[in-house]
Batch of 2 targets.
Target 1
Amino acid sequence: NAGVMQNPRHLVRRRGQEARLRCSPMKGHSHVYWYRQLPEEGLKFMVYLQKENIIDESGMPKERFSAEFPKEGPSILRIQQVVRGDSAAYFCASSPQQGAYEQYFGPGTRLTVT
Amino acid sequence: GDSVTQMEGPVTLSEEAFLTINCTYTATGYPSLFWYVQYPGEGLQLLLKATKADDKGSNKGFEATYRKETTSFHLEKGSVQVSDSAVYFCALSLTNTDKLIFGTGTRLQVFP
């Protein structure tokens, strides 16, 4: 069984460009979570999505960041007009149902903004 | 607000030594508690969990007991191996939300 897949694993963007991070959940999982890990810090929750719905976006910055999880295809985390402070590792996790507590993590995308 | 505090690393041990990584939490309500492990270049893997007070989670020789009176969930292992070298994250999840709240992580380095 394939685990949670994220691509790309490494992404380099210049300031002002857009970054698109993709996450394919485990087979049969319809709940996706995005977390951000800044250097030397723990993971911080960003957003929780189900298919075609944003359930909790309390951790998302108010500007430049958006997320979607369409009916078909992977979940996308989009960062517009990136700045150096966006450099971080972005992790996606999935679970099969709400309240299941166990989240399965992908390997992460390491974004570097130059 | 809700938070998790872990001891700072790195923790450096010789093989077969005893391991303790401290974790305390602050939460409104009754959280579930977790330990995740991150090996170099990989995502996080669930190591163990406990969902109510006095529960003991265990896996691969690691143990942690949910202590409500001290709001703690310390990770222990009786005899570490070189292959245990990784970053360990303590986390909580509240019953009314699915998001995980993580500590900053503790790096463990085990030498032969």
Target 2
Amino acid sequence: AQSVTQLDSQVPVFEEAPVELRCNYSSSVSVYLFWYVQYPNQGLQLLLKYLSGSTLVKGINGFEAEFNKSQTSFHLRKPSVHISDTAEYFCASWRGNTDKLIFGTGTRLQVFP
Amino acid sequence: DTGVSQDPRHKITKRGQNVTFRCDPISEHNRLYWYRQTLGQGPEFLTYFQNEAQLEKSRLLSDRFSAERPKGSFSTLEIQRTEQGDSAMYLCASSLPPGAAYEQYFGPGTRLTVT
């Protein structure tokens, strides 16, 4: 069965510092991977996705992620965070024959001034 | 294109009452998904439609839950005889079929509180 593990439930960081949010997936077949962001009382917005090709994926708002097949990871990074990046971040996987997204439990990014 | 909309945004109901939520997807999207999100958790898949056909239902979707998409456009999710454990955010998402972009666009959600 496919699953997604987000290793950190909360990540506190100061403004302008770099950040990495960790995500590991488990699947015996090829997966497609996504990072979504959720601001308070809102739905989810897609940050970036990996379907195939280059393992370094760039997304919106300066975020990027690297697909690492040998470590089954898809960590999200940003070199310099802003206060406005404070939100919940969800890693998700999609396996073609299941037709649905499987989400991790989320990481709360809290950016302090 | 106004995005995915959901109505109502908030619903407070007493245990045992029935509730119905509505989702309007992006107009050209023929896939529509329902997810449930409880506090501190990621969204969990409930069911999805391609056009008007309901193609998959999670075992999370008990007999008290029913979803419809009668004309392949908007969808409704009904919960009968609500229980306190039904309190959650109910999210709707729409997309083109997989193979196109795999991207699901989410609505703002309906927050249900059962007292």
